[in-house]
Amino acid sequence: MIAPTHPMQLVVGLILWSVWFVALYGGLSVGCAVAPPAEELGAANWLNLSLLVLTAVTLLPLLYWTRLCWRAGLSSQPGSTDRFIALVSSGVHLITAIATLAIGLTVLTLPPCV
Amino acid sequence: MTEPGPRSAEQIHREFHQVWRNLPGLGTLSAVNHTSLGLRFMVTGAIFFLIGGLLAMLVRTQLALPEQDIISPDLYNQIFTMHGTVMMFLFAIPILEGLAIYLIPKMIGARDLAFPRITSLGYYCYLFGGLIIFSSLVLGMAPDSGWFMYTPLSSAEFAPGPGSDFWLLGVTFVEISAVAAGVELTVSILRSRTNGMSLRQMPIYCWYILAMALMIVFGFPPLILASILLELERAAGMPFFEVAGGGDPILWQHLFWLFGHPEVYIIFLPAAGIVSTLIPVFSGRPIVGYRWIVLSIILTGFISFGLWVHHMFTVGIPQLAQAFFSVASMLVAVPTGIQLFAWLATLWTGRVVFNLPMLWIVGFLIIFVCGGLTGVMLALVPFNWQVHDTHFVVAHMHYVLVGGMFFPLIAGFYYWLPHFSGRMPSDVLGRWGFWLTFIGFNTTFLLMHLTGLLGMPRRVYTYEAGLGWDWLNLLSSVGGFIMAAGVAMIIVDVLLHFRFGRKAPQNPWNADTLDWATATPPTTYNFASLPTCSTRHPLWENPELPRTIEQGEHGLTEISHGRRETWGSEAVTGKVTAIFHLPTNSWLPLCAAASLAVVCISLLVRVYELSIVGAVLAAVFLLRWSWENGAHPAMAPPSAEESTRDLPLHSRTHDGPGLWGMVITLMANGALYMSLLFAWFYLWTVSPEWSIPDQQPLLMLPLLASGILLTVSALDFRRITRHLKAGRDSGLQAAFWRIALIGTLHVGLLIWVIAGSSLAPTELAHDAVLLFMLIYQLFHSGLAVILTALQARRVHYGYVSRHYPYEPVVVAPFWLYTTGVFWLGFAAFILLPMSWGGAA
Amino acid sequence: MFTLVFTSLLLAACSGPYSTLDPAGPSATSAAWLWWGMFGFATVVLIVITLLWLYAMRRDPGEVDQRDAQRVQNRWVIGGGVVLPLASITLLLAFGIPAGHNMLPLPLEDGEPARIEVTGHQWWWEVHYPDTGVTLRNEIRMPAGVPVDFVVRSEDVIHSFWIPRLGGKLDMIPGHTGVLRLQADEPGTYHGQCAEFCGVAHAHMRFTVEALPPEEFQAWLEAQQDD
Q1: Residue B1 confidence class, pLDDT cut points 50, 70, 90
Q2: How much is the pLDDT for B528?
Q3: Cα–Cα distance for residue pair C159/C168, rounded to 1 Å
Q4: Which residue from A minimizes the CA distance to C181?
Q5: What is the average pLDDT score of chain B?
Q6: B573 touching chain A per CB within 8 A
Q7: Is position A20 within any domain?
Q8: Which long-range contacts (CB under 8 A, 24 or more apart) does A47-51 make?
Q9: What is the CATH number assigned to the segment(s) B691-840?
Q10: Mutate to test the interface with A, among B186, B204, B302, B380 (most CBs of A within 10 A)
């Protein structure tokens, strides 16, 4: 587990985001190549649902890290590098979580393979 | 040897200059100094800008009136392709890199970048690559498929001439330069900051450049790979992008934009860094929301890698997938908005001096916000389908790039002009230059949005009268010439200022960062003594710094040893842990780059024997370069004086910049390999006529055996390195020879696998990818063996031992990478396909 | 009076044979509406931000202590940098996603849409009506008032099929087949062109579209078959 004041915190959430994004796009493409759901189902099908679950699972660590870093930042000494890293990381994690949510929610609106 | 008594500032300067100066006359070509090379990058970039601008004028002349035939369609296609190529690859990126190369050491209180010879290699690769690309235009055989070179229009069938080859080889050459700069800027920013400058005290510009450098490291390899693959298809007939052979032209688009979109932010971030540097200085207060800005830089760096498909909304990808990229594209507005409003808050709370650089910043704001807003519009898929590939996109792109890059660049240029020359620019001419450029630009491109909405596609060499496009095009052309007049005015201003500009006082703008603590123009060594810095605004808190630095009142003033030195520090805290000794003037980078240019040109004219000669020569020069390192007499031979100092030289430690440079380079290399894996999986799932051979074309047993030998070598190397770090070096030379021998066996087996396989790389994309993967592996394995053998020789000469454990530590990650890539490749290219029912 | 003159000028400036702002089908109409909405919103944002900047540069801040700066930061950075973009994106998607959804070639509630196959060549268009043997060159005839699926392919390099007044474009890519649904609301003549750069004669790669009342179209198709 990476400490909330470790500089890797600045990027670890976004690395997770990148992996999620690749999985989302890759999963959709492979899903459509292998077993495309029927067009009539619209957005209610196994593929969209799996992508939604994937998104939800990705959100958990991002939100957890947001909180972890925020608390660590507030309890660090003002003006210290630890505080700086923890607070910036917390913000990065939060906005990453928002980005994950915003991109992930589109699976509710469109059929997957058209 | 220490001097008796304190030295005067002049004496210090003389002694330092003796060590740090470039060689006189033609010898200046061997310079490795970041100030000289940064300026050369910028001047070369500016010349290419003028060439690119001239091409734009030709385009606007041709389009001024309908149905003109001033320029033939064939030539027109060359011109617009070259305009885009020159502006993107030969102007925007290099000039921003040049500025960073010039400024970064000065801002972080260092005397040079971490790898000065790489700076020089990067410059020559850029210069030669640029000349090769440009020569195609002079020869009348320039690339003519557009600057993103979509296949199959750029492939051998539809572009049989050498134009595409010029592009592919030349641009790849220039990209080597960019990646080199990316690696060395990253390492320099992280490891050579002055004492006490922790991450949170770095000037904000350094954060921007750090992000830019890392984005280059990850963003350029996809295009390098794509260019190599397309050149292989054109020259050797390997059908990576050809449908009939199982390839897919869309793969090119993915790889190109995987580079191409991050590239827009690679250009924007350093320019935004200039804005974030200038605004606090001219507001007379620290920037508001430093942490917010760092946050948005990091976010931009990542999210911009998730947008590439928005250039491909009309290729027929499922709309849900498009929606992912659409929303991601819009989300980039968040970090951009944060910066915009942090700048606003800084102006709001400061007392603003509205001078020439600030005028350009205001111009930037208006144009860039407009470009950003049309960018959000383009991210909306149903609207994008209408305006994609029209002049609306041309207008948007110029708003973003000229607004987001050119205007801040000129602002920064005026700001640092006194630093470059020691003289102040003229306010009157400068203002004329601004207004002409600003008015000309908006006349050209604001109207162009409407031209696009009225349906004019991009890249047409002419158009019929009466479609509603006539008056718009005419006004756009008039605007283009007004803008050209503005640029001319800036050039006149700069040229005149060298002669008539009044002398700049020390720190003329009352700036806060250490770059203004040097002399203007700067000395070759930047700082006679290196100050401890524990604030974001050293010059505001201690205006005396320039004087005390010059008088040698701070650290690292020893020079009698004759080495170029700067501090090496911890990445996070900035606490000094070692002394980096840096190489002096060297001809090796020029020779290596010239040999690579020979390779490039001989590939162009298809004299492959000569290209082998060039490659061997380049290898010789580069290995000689690696030889002159560490305790080698040309670098830092052992001396009595070093034991009397508080800090060790970095080549005596096992955590020097070389290790960091190796790891970052391997990240770039890994990004290339990931792109290859992407290509493989992409073709496997999407390519319309993908087919696999009936039988597994590779010899499995030798391949497995080869992998085991490789693993043994790598683990052995790792073990030896650990011993070395723990201070044990008995039998070191024999151990390196042993590893080299086992490695050679591995290479031998690998060659057998390649030679004995039944691959048909010119018929099947499947086999072409496999062959490429094997040759990639062979290159790495061979290099690892050579480097290890060299280490064994260096042990013999006493350059490597437990006192000098530095180099094996640098080579160790390369062995691990080579092994990792082998097994990853084995899993992805052989095992996984078997499980899908591929050839077994 | 002024409004009338202004509007008619605007309409005149927006019309044209290839104008996306002179829509003649549902897809083009919704894209045009999206444009006008975004244009209005973006103009307001641009003007407000520019005025704020110019004001910020001229105003006298007085004495600003750390706490004031923090307050200004929170107001501008969180309000302008985070909330404003997110709200704008939400608004945009609320209109954009349904608009995009309606452009998709999804199955119709009743019946099948007409299908017309178009193949791009350097530098002409081959138009084919499936199951009829009817082939045209650089000319398309389609029924008006009903959705038509254009099945697009390419014979050589990448082209892009675009009839601006009817709707968005779709690339024609060698080895791939794309389906673009368009509808002409009224009978009439429309114009199309290649949007993806495809070589020397790219600028001349155009075609005309004749939208006929459905019965007339059917009669024409049958007459062609008989020939």
Answers
A1: very low
A2: 96
A3: 14
A4: A114
A5: 95
A6: yes
A7: no
A8: A47/A112, A47/A113, A48/A107, A48/A108, A48/A112, A48/B320, A51/A24, A51/A27, A51/A104, A51/A107
A9: 1.20.120.80
A10: B302
